[in-house]
Design goal:
Elements (H helix, E strand, L loop, with lengths): L6 E6 L1 H15 L5 E6 L13 H9 L3 E7 L8 E2 L5 H8 L4 E7 L8 H11 E14 L14 H7 L4 E8 L8 E6 L2 E2 L6 H8 L1 E2 L2 H9 L11 E2 L3 E8 L11
Parallel strand pairs: 2-3, 2-5, 3-4, 5-6
Antiparallel strand pairs: 1-8, 6-12, 7-8, 7-12, 8-9, 10-11
């Protein structure tokens, strides 16, 4: 039996991956309205540099676009104030509406019960619809309003186990830098635990004691040298699809 194809790290960008996702959603729904829900849509001063999904969706789908921004608090870009964990409140607000694409970026780490949020998202996704989730695997503490979780790819896949994972890429958070990576085996996306073997080489920089001490001394504010290892921020981005044929939906 021939050896399995080797695992490869393939460079890409978040912009390219998102363009491909929007294309896939358009191909799945070639006519009629395209309904998109963004969970955690509020634009705050701290994250104004983030991509504007409303603009992306309207630019891609034109008059077909039906965009809803959902958040737990009112603010810029928010159409509906509701808790993603409260399925009864969501049912009252959205009725039988289902979405061709749901975007949930930088949300689940701030949710007390992400498994409940995942149940709500899966219920709101239309048959044949797609989901994009972005969560930190490595990130500094950021309490907005609080910071509870870090998630690996396997953790995200477990939360959304009712869906089929069709995409996975890693990104960082450096301002102005749009570099992302996929892990493949040959030309096929690798989704097994074997991807963990490449993460050390991709994202970790280990410093000796003197270099670590020098690094900490050059940082603003108080730094406590508890570790000799430094790891840059890393986000896990997962694209998943709900089983079933795409159907026409009145009032979407």
């Amino acid at each position: 039996m021939p050896d399995a194809a080797p695992i490869k790290v393939v460079g890409t960008s978040a912009a390219r991956e998102i363009d491909q996702l929007l294309d896939i959603v358009a191909q799945a729904r070639p006519s009629g309205p395209v309904s998109v829900l963004q969970v955690g849509a509020r634009i705050a001063p701290v994250n104004r540099a983030e991509r504007n999904w409303r603009h992306l969706v309207e630019a891609r789908y034109g008059p077909r676009a039906r965009f809803t921004g959902l958040d737990i608090a009112a603010g810029d870009n928010v159409d509906l104030v509701s808790d993603i964990c409260d399925r009864q409140a969501l049912a009252r607000a959205l009725g039988r509406r289902r979405f061709d694409l749901i975007v949930c970026e930088h949300v689940l780490e701030h949710v007390r019960a992400p498994w409940r949020a995942a149940e709500s998202v899966q219920a709101l996704l239309a048959p044949g619809g797609h989901l994009l989730v972005a969560v930190p695997w490595v990130h500094a503490h950021h309490a907005r309003p609080d910071d509870y979780w870090r998630m690996s790819f396997a953790g995200v896949a477990l939360l959304f186990e009712a869906l089929q994972v069709v995409g996975l890429f890693y990104t960082g958070t450096a301002a102005g830098l749009d570099v992302a990576y996929r892990v493949t085996r040959g030309d096929v996306l690798e989704l097994s635990p074997a991807i963990g073997a490449v993460e050390h080489g991709l994202f970790q920089l280990t410093l000796d004691h003197a270099e670590n001490k020098d690094l900490l001394q050059r940082q603003p504010g108080q730094r406590l040298p508890l570790s000799r290892a430094y790891m840059p921020a890393m986000l896990v981005n997962v694209v998943a699809r709900k089983a079933g044929p795409v159907r026409d939906r009145a009032g979407a």
